[in-house]
Amino acid sequence: MPPHSPIPTSQISRALVLGSTSRYRRELLERLRIPFTVAAPDVDETPDLGESPRDLALRLALAKAKAVAAKHPESVVIGSDQVADLAGQPLGKPGEHARAVQQLRQMRGQTVIFQTALAVVCLATGFEAVDLAAVRVVFRDLSDAEIEAYLQAEKPYDCAGSAKSEGLGIALLESIDNDDPTALVGLPLIRTARMLRQAGIQLLRATP
C-alpha cells in the first residue's frame, strides 16, 4: 500500500507508539533516539487458509498498528510482524523446545526467507503505510547435536524460525542477504526511519 504524502514536521508533533511487546523491537527502535511508548496489540495471529507468509506478515503488521492506533488515535503507531518462509510454508515463533527442534531440522541446509513487515499508522491524519523487508537466509546443514547445543544455550523460543542471528544463532548460518540490516532481528530500521519521516516524525534534530 503506497504511503500518503509526507506531513511537514514543522506543522505537527505527535507521540510515537510501538505496537509490540517484543523486547527486540523495543531495543531496535531505541537506536533512533526518539521518545516512544509501548502498547500491546490485541490481534489474532492465526494464518488465513492458503495465506502466503509474505501476505500474513503484511496483514498482521497492519492489523497490529491499527489495533493500537484505535486506542491512541492522535499518535503515530508502528506495527511489525515477522514470518519465516520455508518454500511457502510459514514458520512462526516456536514457543517451546520440541517445536524449535522441529523448525531447525526443517531449515537445515535450506534457504529461508524471513518476511519482516512494517506498518505505520496515524488515525488523526489518515496516514497509513506498509512495507516489507525480505531477508534471504541460508542455513548450514546442521547436525542434531548442533541444534540441541544451540537451543540449550540460547533458548530462542520467542523468535520466528527459532534462530537469533544477533546472538549465537549466527553460527547456524551460511549467509544472510538483505538491504536493511536490522530486519532479521525484527524491525527494519531503514524503512522505519523513512516511514516515520513520511508520517511527520522528525528523527534528526539539533540539540540546544
Automatic annotation (TrEMBL):
One Pfam assignment: Maf
Site (Important for substrate specificity): 24, 82, 166
CC cofactor: a divalent metal cation
Protein role: Nucleoside triphosphate pyrophosphatase that hydrolyzes 7-methyl-GTP (m(7)GTP). May have a dual role in cell division arrest and in preventing the incorporation of modified nucleotides into cellular nucleic acids.
Active site per the UniProt annotation: 81
Main location, first listed in the record: cytoplasm
EC number, UniProt record: 3.6.1.-
Coiled-coil ranges (or none): none
Catalytic activity: N(7)-methyl-GTP + H2O = N(7)-methyl-GMP + diphosphate + H(+)
Name of the protein: 7-methyl-GTP pyrophosphatase
InterPro entries: ITPase-like_fam, Maf-like
Cellular compartment(s): Cytoplasm
Keywords assigned: Cytoplasm, Hydrolase, Nucleotide metabolism
GO MF annotations, alphabetized: nucleoside triphosphate diphosphatase activity
Organism whose genome encodes this protein: Limnohabitans planktonicus II-D5
Stated family: Belongs to the Maf family. YceF subfamily.
Example GO BP: nucleotide metabolic process
Cellular component per GO, a single term: cytoplasm
